[in-house]
Specification:
- The protein is mainly α.
- Helices cover about 55% and strands about 0% of the residues.
- It is rod-shaped and about 100 Å long.
- The mean pLDDT is about 80.
- The termini are far apart.
- The longest helix has about 40 residues.
- It has one domain.
Length: about 100
């Protein structure tokens, strides 16, 4: 059988105490949710900054330097090397 620990305490006082604790927990949960959302927004902004814009950046920004060195060759007035960036979904049609 369950025992009642708060003998002599009015029911209204117990309800008030429980209600007060619930309000405190709810406020703390809202603060933590706001902090979490702020951190998620910061993370998203950092990830957006990591996205490389191919039209305005050098190849060295997003390609391995060894790979870039392998692309370099001598050019002459008759021969020029160009590079095209093609999405992998369109690679077969481009080649």
């Amino acid at each position: 059988m369950a025992k009642y620990r708060n003998i002599g305490v009015l029911l209204t006082d117990l309800v008030f105490a429980v209600n007060h604790m619930v309000i405190e927990v709810d406020q703390e949960l809202k603060k933590l949710a706001n902090l979490f959302n702020e951190k998620v927004q910061i993370l998203n902004s950092i990830e957006k900054k990591k996205i490389v814009n191919l039209s305005s950046s050098d190849f060295e920004d997003f390609l391995d330097p060894k790979l870039v060195e392998s692309f370099q060759s001598e050019e002459s007035e008759y021969l020029a090397k160009i590079m095209a960036i093609v999405p992998s979904s369109m690679e077969k049609g481009y080649l």
